[in-house]
Amino acid sequence: MSKDNQVLEEFTSREYEHGWTINIETDSAPKGLNEDIIRFISQKKNEPSWLLEWRLKAYRQWVKMEEPTWANVSYPKINYQDLIYYAAPKQKVKPSSLDDVDPELVKTFEKLGISLTEQKRLTGIAVDAVIDSVSVATTYKSTLAQLGIIFCSFSEAVQEHPELIQKYMGSVVPVADNYFSALNAAVFTDGSFCYIPKGVRCPMELSTYFRINAANTGQFERTLIIADEGSYVSYLEGCTAPMRDENQLHAAVVEIYAMKDAQVKYSTVQNWYPGDKHGKGGIYNFVTKRGLCFGERSKISWTQVETGSAITWKYPSCILKGDESMGEFYSVAVTNNYQQADTGSKMIHIGKNTRSRIVSKGISAGHSQNSYRGQVHIMKRAEGARNFSQCDSLLMGDKCGAHTFPYIDVENKSARIEHEATTSKIGEDQIFYCLQRGIDEESAVALIVNGYAKEVLNQLPMEFAVEAQKLLALTLEGSVG
Amino acid sequence: MLSIKNLQARIGDKQILNGINLEVKAGEVHAIMGPNGSGKSTLASVLAGREDYEVTAGEVEFRGKDLLEMAPEERAREGVFLAFQYPVEIPGVSTINFMKTALNKVLQARGQQTLDAVSFLKVMKEKMKLVDIDQSLLNRSLNEGFSGGEKKRNEIFQMAMLEPRLAILDETDSGLDIDALKVVANGVNKLRSSSNATIVVTHYQRLLDYIVPDYVHVLYKGKIVKSGKKDLALELEAKGYDWIKDEVAV
Predict the structure, then answer these.
(1) Which residue has the higher pLDDT, B97 or A98?
(2) Closest-CA distance of chain B to residue A279, Å
């Protein structure tokens, strides 16, 4: 057993792969947060006055709010005046095409395996690349435009499609929904925007890739996806950050608006820097993600593979307003070393015959703490609503923790709710069985963990699933106890 | 092929093996019999390298190498295969996926070309016929929800895939009805050759009607107290283990 622990140590001491930084000149705001900083950001982005007003209103609300403390995570108090709220890679001219993008930036994304250049682009995936606070490039824009699909950075959408932004921004996640959403509304700098017109099935995966580079900088991006009647889109999100000793704050907001018969599939592979093996550094990932199934028979599906961040506070949710609409949440959350995750989902059933499904697979190793927190709320009018939740926890070693906090509120008697939960350990018997067949311990753990998470990994688009599998194995290598 | 000298082992404070001596040559089948608690399964586990057991004395040489020095996966790659008495379940991992990983690890360690999906499936189809196993079973999560017979058949299938030099069958007959027993034994017999060896660990003689051993050894209180040919098994069947116990006591 002591040998197992030894291997566990080796395994868990694996280094973070994307921890490098690049030297890009940045244009940034001074430290601190006040109305002037917000005006500075708004001015930098050449925003219309209504947006500045919206930001200021959000800020004034945020100042009055308290940082939430109910999550099962602990961290020293964040000094919001010690952060930089705007950092943009300096580009000499505004790039009119991808060829004009700073080669350093292109290299950055190539290092991450994301090619922005025409020839080498991943086929079938359009990418919006966001570095620090701004979007640097969006690929395949013109191809998509032919179908009437709008896919661009949030800033661009503010300029080009203000009517859509004004109508939908904050309609799913209200400004004052929570502390971090209010902060985001006040200081968000960029993000992705996507609109799929009526009846259009988006022919390729849309993807946003987030990278934090600058030090002491908070990243606050907003994503807004609008799926018009009968449309379909699959959206991917990936993220990494350099290794830094101080913690960095990432407070994003994602809103999805699905109209009648629309379907949106949103997949995340989250690989922010988790801190070192003693728990120093790492990203605080405080994110609000919510989808509104506004129309009848609409469907929103969240899939997340969470491997990074020092602290994760994230509950991708669905509001099932349209009759017969459907929400899904598939999650694998892995924590190792001193990582803390408090993640789960909310399914709010408002419409008749609405259905939801939650499949959460937590994996804890090292000294980490992994919590599932979920809410299923069946409102009065939600005749015939159904929910199925499954929350499994897998423990590796004896110093980590797994917790489950399911909340169920039912106001309509016709509801049918099922909740299943299991907790298991990777057994020595399972490992020995693999060893006896010639499979080494690291591969054995990868095999067992991927098997455990299979139901969720199967929901990911092909390219992402492969990346996620590798990531799981990397994050957990050696964590056997 | 395998040479065991004065092997002693314990689990915790409990001494279980008290000096085992055994020589196994290529092409031979040895049966290890004995009453419950005599150390049969411990011997199988120690040979496979299970860490719960501590070897306190003795040597084990496998094809000229010190077996006890090797990690469990190295032993497997050298060609030691253990058919488990209680095969474990691994949810979400199909037998096919599991075997592909295992076989390629073994091939890689031996400096041989690993198999891609297509050539793996080809090999798999051949071996499936050999042990009469259905592909639908192999598509399912490893051993999850398998019947006793299916689990044991799956073990023999894995043995066929990995082509071990030394196969150790630990109570492979336990929990099998007679038809399943025949299928499993049939598979083992087809895999027998002049270049590999088999150790059959069993409590009952009935498996030996189908897998006919060259030698039979009786294990009692962690020692081999009697060795003989196939007839010894029949004698044990007729007289029971008390006869051996009495003989040892004298």
Answers:
(1) B97
(2) 32
User: Given an 8 Å threshold on Cβ–Cβ distance, is A453 in contact with B92?
Assistant: yes
Q: Give strand pairing partners of A328.
A: A301, A357
CA A415/CA A356 separation, integer angstroms: 11
Short-list B49, B148, B74, B73, CA closest to A447? B73
The two tokens of residue B95 are 């037998």
Q: Is B77 helix (H, G, I), strand (E, B) or coil?
A: helix
Quote the pLDDT of residue A15. 61
Of A433, A438, A439, the CB nearest to B84: A433
Q: Residue A362 — φ and ψ, nearest 5°?
A: -100, 140
* Angle, helices A35-44/A49-64, rounded to nearest 10 degrees: 150
What's the rounded Cα separation, in Å, for the pair A71 and A50? 34
Q: How far apart are CA A250 and CA B54, in angstroms?
A: 51
Residue A201 DSSP symbol = B
Residues of A in contact with B75 (CB under 8 A): 436
Beta-carbon separation of B92 and A450 below 8 A: yes
Instruction: Please name the residue of chain B whose CA is at the shortest distance from the CA of residue A445.
Output: B90
Kind of pairing, strands B223-228 and B215-220?
Answer: antiparallel
In which residue ranges of chain A is pLDDT below 70? Answer: 1-26, 89-127, 130-138, 211-216, 239-246, 463, 477-481
Tokens of A184: 């985001």
- Residues on chain A touching B82 (C-beta within 8 angstroms): 436
Which residue type occupies A193? Answer: F
ipTM: 0.95
Contacts for B190 with CB less than 8 Å, ≥ 6 apart = B130, B131
pLDDT tens column, B1-57: 999 999 999 998 999 999 999 999 999 999 999 888 899 999 999 999 998 899 999
Q: Distance between CA atoms of A205 and A460, rounded to whole angstroms? A: 11
Q: Do B162 and A437 touch (CB under 8 A)?
A: yes
| DSSP-assigned states of every residue in A10-62 | HHHTPPPTT-------EEEPPSS-SHHHHHHHHHHTT--HHHHHHHHHHHHHH
Spell out which residues of chain A touch residue B41, defining contact as CB-CB under 8 Å: none
Helix pair angle (B117-131, B148-162), 10° resolution = 120
Q: Is B48–A434 a contact, with Cβ atoms under 8 angstroms apart?
A: no
Verify whether the Cβ–Cβ distance B97 to A439 is below 8 Å.
no
pLDDT digits (tens, 9 = 90+) for A258-293: 999 999 999 988 777 777 778 788 888 889 999 999
Cβ contact (<8 Å) for B92 and A434? no
β-bridge mates for residue A392, sequence order: A361, A422
Cβ <8 Å between B101 and A439: yes
Q: Identify the CA nearest to A16 among candidates A368, A271, A250.
A: A271
Please tell me the class of the B2-249 domain: alpha beta
Report whether pLDDT(B173) > 90: no
Which two three-digit tokens encode residue B205? 């003689």
Domain ranges (residues) in chain B = 2-249
Q: What is the pLDDT of residue A68?
A: 86
Count of CB contacts below 8 A, A vs B?
A: 78
What angle is formed at CA B187 by the lines to CA B184 and CA B190, rounded to 5 degrees?
150
Q: In chain A, what residues touch B101 (CB-CB under 8 Å)?
A: 439, 443, 447
- Give B67's contacts in chain A (Cβ within 8 Å): none
- pTM assigned to the model: 0.81
Interface probe with A: pick from B105, B112, B140, B158, most Cβ of A within 10 Å? B105
Contacts of B71 in chain A (CB under 8 A): 435
Q: At B227, is the pLDDT very low, low, confident or very high (cuts 50, 70, 90)?
A: very high
